[in-house]
Structure formats: C-alpha cells, structure tokens
Amino acid sequence: MKKNMRLILGASAVALVAVSLGAVPASAHVPKPVRGNVVLTAHLTELNDSGASGRAFAVVRGETIRAFGIRARGLTPDAPHAQHIHYGEQAQNECPTLALDSNGDGRLNTVEGVPAYGPVVVSLNTSGDTTPASFLDVSRFPVSKNGSYNYLRTDIRFTDVAGTGYSGADGLGTAAQIAEAIRDGEGVVVIHGNDYDGNGTYNLSDPEGASELDPTLPAEATDPVACGVLH
Question: How many whole angstroms separate alpha carbon 206 and alpha carbon 200?
Fold first, then answer.
C-alpha cells in the first residue's frame, strides 16, 4: 500500500519532468501538479570548452525534490559524470567564467568555480545517498553513452549539510533554508568530467594531473563541463 501511494503521489511530478525533457510526447496527458509544487528549469551550457550542453528540470515541494531530470549531450563518451546542485549563501549562485581561473592554467577546476555556484547541496547520483557527502563517489553517477545520457530520480530530500562530512558545509544553513533558496531560483546544476586529451579515459598521468578535491582522482574526472541556473 505504501509503495502504491508513493507512485500515485509522484505521478504528476514524474510526468512533468518527462514532458520537459522530451521523454514522452508533449501531447500526452499530464496530471495537474499537486498544490505546493515549484517547477524549476535550467539550460546547461558548456564550461572548459567541453562542448557539453543540456536541460535540467526539477519539481520541488517543501524540503523534497519530487523529481529531477537531466538530458545532457556533448560529454566525454562512455564515462561517468558527477553532477550536483550547488548553492551558497556567500556565492553568486550563477555559472562561472574563466575570469575565476585563479592559477592561470586556462581551465576552471571545481574549487575555482565555487565563488560563482557555491558548494554542493545535493548529489544527483543514480542510487544511494544524495547528500553532499557523496559528491565524489563517481561510480554512482550517470555514465554517458556515446556522449549523452538521460537522468531521472525522484524523492530527493534536502538535508542539514552540517554533520554529513562535507567540508563545504559552513554557512549553508538548514535543509529548510537550502530548499527555500533552491525554490527561489538560487540553485545551480553542474556536470563534471572532461577527457581533455580525448584518449577515452580520465587519467592521473594527463597534464591536468590530480583533482584538487581528491589526489586519487584525475582532475579530468572532477573539472566542471556544463552549468545552468535552476530558474
């Protein structure tokens, strides 16, 4: 019974996301959204000359993302792509430009983009924990097939980031405050993963070296490649 109720309550949100991302014909019947939903969309554009682009769509109610979808293309083929919702009280809550390239190496790493998009508040992975604590678990993020993927996940809860083990937690506020900021259009969707040399894999031995976030991961796996604000 509980499972059936969950499916019924989530039908409107999932249908809205499916239509927005082109998963079903626009002419298909869409149930009227449940009162209290806020619908947000983002147009994703490339970072780091990646050629990546896409669309994102979220249905948020209270402290829950009832459904979140992404359709992305132009990505490194057949590779995992970490993706997150970013937000910060001290951030500009927008997509970064190369002007934030503080070390002058001609590319933006994730940390250099933080003043623009803020810390991670939700990990948009395919299974398991969605808190910021999972933001580097690359194995649980979508894998692009021939450079593209469609992503859909339901019932993602915002969390009190403090206590999750995430180093960017300071100043982010409670789950309710974060959810309110996202509903107000201050959330930024960022996709990561850029095979700069086109050799078909993310390598520590490539010129970009190790990620500034984790020395065991290549920078290619964590550098941002697409970004869009959830309006």
Answer: 12
